[in-house]
Amino acid sequence: HSSCQNTVIEYMDLDMMSVLIQVKLWRVCDPAQDQCSDAEVTLSPADGRLELVLFHPAASELLAVASVRGLQVWDVTRDTALTGKHTPVCARFSVVFSYFILSQEVRLWDSRKLSSSLTILALHIHCLTDLSTRGTALVPKLALDVSCCEVLRLLQLTDNFIVPISYQVPRKAGQDFHADLYPDTVGHTPAMTAEDWWKGENKQVLSSQRSEASTSSSPLSTPSSSAAPSRSPSSTSGLSSGFLPSPSPSQSSRAIQNMLGPSSKFRHIQGAVLHRDTHITNLRGLHLTTPGECDGFCANGQRVAVPLAIAGGQIAVFELSQPGKLPDTALPTIQNSVNVADFCWDPFDTHKLVVAGDDAKIRVWQIPKGGLTETLTEPECVLRGHTEKIYSIKFHPHASGLLASSSYDLTVRLWNLGTGEEVKRLSGHQDQIFGIAWSPDGKLLATVCKDGKVRLYDPRKSTLPIQEGPGPEGHRGARVVWVCDGKYLLVSGFDSRSERQLYLFSAESLASGSVASVPADVSPSTLIPFYDPDTSVLILTGKGDTRVYTYEILPEAPYFMECSSFHSSEPHKGLCFLPKTECDVRDVEVARAIRLGKSTIEPVAFRVPRVKKEFFQDDVFPETAVWWEASLTAAAWLSGSNGQHRKISLQPKDMTPVSEAPKEVPVRKYLPSSVYLEEKTDEQKKEELLSAMVAKLGNREDPLPQASCEGVDEDEWVSEELTTHTHTPRMIHDTL
């Protein structure tokens, strides 16, 4: 209510069960006081569903209530309406604001520029935002900051935030009040009471001079010292104004941060392909149609395995330490004898490659030191047990030689590679198993299935799931990965409209469904996730994509914080991430991946831009787990033991942590704006120009260079007669 300085708000309450329609008025207390839980006034129009409410612009306590059946005018101090149905109420507005639900644009219109055909002309002042607009509200004129020529301030309502948007007219800085921008505005004192208006009186609210009102305190005003200058009339520099007066810029920035919510330190993460000297090129005959459950290729810190489109399920192995152009001739390969369904490297043995085939068998291959020099035809061992084609295989994160596999026979089986035997068989799935994932501590196994369920197994205690809950509704594919120290499960899948989605599930209550979800885009390939437990950064991409998504995952709301994406010029087969020790910490590289293109293998570095790179960025490089070393054997895990990886520091010995860096005194980099905006006279400009020319030409009083050269003595000169006749050669000789 304008006459009460926003201390009264209205609320419509529709109770469908009792068919009771009410309008409740609440008086907002000062921040230091406790808000009353009961409404100050409750009105019961009882005239159908309510649509709109509007306070009178000049009379106090006078409220118009519009319903589907008519219109009533209420004196809120009474229990009955002043008028009945169909009572006309006129309201004039000089500025109309138009916002669109699910739009990301706030546009300003001026209704004074209406043509005869009621065509509204836009003022061409747009504010493009990153968030969808759910509503807008206009801040009273008396709350504007006239010192920075703020003529308008909106409050934009989004799904999670209330964002102030400031409109400022670019004017020269100074103490002058710009009267042309600020005519007298309507004050807060009502012109009459509701009873006076009902008796027929018509009065206008007294105007208030904006120059005087700007000096008074207001809950929404901010000192000009804390207001940031606007880049353009449509900029959102009003964010620095906030809601409460801030005595210092630092406190103002903290208030803005609290208002906008958390911000990720990785929001500006940058992905970049490394120099061509590190690439492996001239790849030929790649197999581009691997099953959806397969990552497409796999890599460790030393080598990369790539499937080839050659009969017999052949796999090429390339050493990362030997980049360059591959020969046009045939390469030594692994002949798997059947089509490859999935394959992966043993995390504890960089020479061991495990391949699952269409024949329901798992073959274990041992790569010789130095790489493949000849074609391998005989595996080290073959695991038999599945009755249908295998979907995917995953190694245990702690126990050496312990492998999990999922198959079309709707089972998940555990294998001991040391003995070549099946040790566990998990059941309970009703359809195709899209993905499996071990928990970080290695105790539990999670699966996501085509039947729309996410399941959790404790293999050492039961062959049936200990938990299950609703998963993605789409049936095109899904992946699952553990995040936030094993507290949550992240599932990448599709919704009912076949659009890619990310879902976050609590590992303690799968039955309650996802706690958060984020839409990605529309694409037929499943997003393959990689999660870095050190930074809680999630990186995703799909086969055939050109974009790599990056999120920081939080254990509490908002759960997902989107960061910068990495875009490639050509579609890629996928990404495979390397151990953390491969990252260049001096360049603040938090992740290193191998990107498989159409004919190349390229390293990709993900870096966080920092200023003080001479220091070790210990806030993004905590001690990392040595996950490439086993902490126990498969037999020990099966008997009930649990392992834990040791941790190491990535800090180089010659670098100091940034947390221990000496504090620098802030230095002002730029002169104040008054220096640039100060008007200079013509004489001052001429003097500056002459001074600059003199400085460029140098000091004209300095002697010339030839003045310092030495000549001949006076007695060495001869007469003109001798010079012109007989002694010319001698004179020249002596002179020289």
Short summary:
The chain has 736 residues and is mainly beta.
Give a description of the structure:
By secondary structure, this protein is mainly β. 8% of the residues lie in helices and 35% in strands. The chain contains 8 helices and 51 strands. The strands form 16 sheets. Strands 41, 42, 43, 44 and 45 form a 5-stranded antiparallel β-sheet that branches. The protein has a 4-stranded antiparallel β-sheet with strand order 17-48-47-46, with no helix packed on it. The protein has a 4-stranded antiparallel β-sheet with strand order 19-20-21-23, with no helix packed on it. Strand 20 (303-307) and strand 21 (314-319) form a beta hairpin. The chain is flat, with a radius of gyration of 38 Å. The termini are far apart. Mean pLDDT is 79; it is low at 3-19, 85-106, 108-124, 211-250 and 719-736.
